[in-house]
Amino acid sequence: MLKGGVGPRLAISLAFGSSAAVMVLELVSLRLVAPYIGLTLETNTAVIGVALAAIATGAALGGIMADRVAPTVTLGPLLLLSGALVMLILPIVRWSGEAVRGGGQDLVFLVLAVALFAPAALLAAVTPMVTKLRLDSLAQTGTVVGRLSAYATVGGIVGTVLTGFLFVAHAPVSTIVLTLGGLLVAVGAFLTVVLRGARTAFKPVALALIGATLTVVAPRPCEVETAYHCARVVADPNREGGRTLYLDQLRHSYVDLNDPTYLEFGYAKNFVAAIDAKWRGDRALDVLHVGGGGMTMPRYLTATRPGSRHVVYEIDAAVVELDKTELGVRTGPELDIRVQDGRLGVRAEPADSRDLVIMDAFGGVSVPWHLTTRELIADVKRVLRPDGIYLINVIDHGPASFARAELRTLQAEFAQVAVIAAGDGSGGNFVLVASDRPLPAITVAAGMQVQDDLTQFVASAPVLTDDFAPVDQLLTPYAQ
């Protein structure tokens, strides 16, 4: 028997599905803004905060509306409108992002916040409305409210798990958004027609069609949408074989397809300066790389130090595939690429097995926090041979609080630590060098300097540990 036009199974399905849709929308929104404002803990926190605010607002207003207007009148159009607004999120964010590419991060986030808040709030209003429809006496209030709240929570869990493990890994963001919006529109149109009549569904359906059309023609900042990044390879117009790998909004690697010894980025040149100072000539090395990107350093060292053997831990399988299809990477005895989190990879490496460990892994503009801690560094030290060196690329500006903390953390494990950085103190890429043996004199390019007396620079910076590693909070990601 239907109560107010909504039976128990339909009520459960609506509570479950609307909550799942909110979580899908929240996680996909993180992917939408990453190419324009990066992906840090603060970004994640802010998007989650917007979604929770929308859920709270929608639940409160949905309850009020359910008491004032029959939910049978509003439920269908509510889902219809939410689906239409979902379809508008992608084109709105992408056109805004492209308009201010290279700046205006606050504006892009504000646009996303508004675009996400509206449909998420509408979806959150569904559960109190169907709860109202299922109540017919005070005697069963607790049972009905508890049951529907439980199913709504389970829906949120399912939406989160499916998005994180399945949807993002196998479908472009645009497909996910269009599918979600289309499902909401279809369900909303069905309920509207059944409960109110066909005429009231026309305007939201028209808005949904507009949103779908705009989604199809919206700018696409990605060549490949991976499980972690928006990735693309861009040809250098000034160098025939030059290719730049972009992950989200950042240049992560530069390679010359015709000359593996060509290095474009200053930090890569500083890596080489430290390596050549330690091992002069063309001695072959056993190298562990945490973070692959475009495989610039494995290419370079293979070309300049024949016989070197490289193991690379790169967490993003799609980036590895892009390396193979567009950047000419070939695996073999000298280059073993393993798709795995770097922390787990280092843990699995034998002791005293590597001459050199290079940490060049980024999540947005920061090194992932679990790759910065003393515990990880102790594991790297275990993997290194007694005369080996550890090189880290970090990006920091302003007070460089993160770079200083990472240096302090290196000092807690290694006897010798130095940093190569811009001589004018402007920040940018810092190459950190650590070893248990005395470091040789490192010759760097003009404008760079090597600092090994770090007492004043490190000062009272904290040691980063698995228990305390506020990397995103310490970091100043952009020049001020």
How would you describe this protein?
By secondary structure, the protein is α/β, with parallel strands linked by helices. The chain contains 16 helices and twelve strands. The strands form two sheets. An eight-stranded mixed sheet has the order 7-6-5-8-9-11-10-12, with helices on both faces. A four-stranded antiparallel sheet has the order 1-2-3-4. The relative contact order is 0.10. The mean pLDDT is about 90.
Mind sketching the topology for me?
Elements: H1 8-37, H2 41-68, H3 71-99, H4 105-124, H5 126-134, H6 141-170, H7 173-195, H8 202-217, E1 224-225, E2 230-235, E3 242-247, E4 250-256, H9 266-278, E5 286-290, H10 296-304, E6 309-313, H11 317-326, E7 335-338, H12 342-348, E8 354-359, H13 374-383, E9 384-396, H14 401-411, E10 416-422, E11 428-435, E12 448-451, H15 455-458, H16 471-474
Parallel strand pairs: 5-6, 5-8, 6-7, 8-9
Antiparallel strand pairs: 1-2, 2-3, 3-4, 9-11, 10-11, 10-12
Helix pairs in contact: 1-2, 1-3, 1-4, 1-5, 1-6, 1-7, 2-4, 2-5, 3-4, 3-5, 3-7, 3-8, 5-6, 7-8
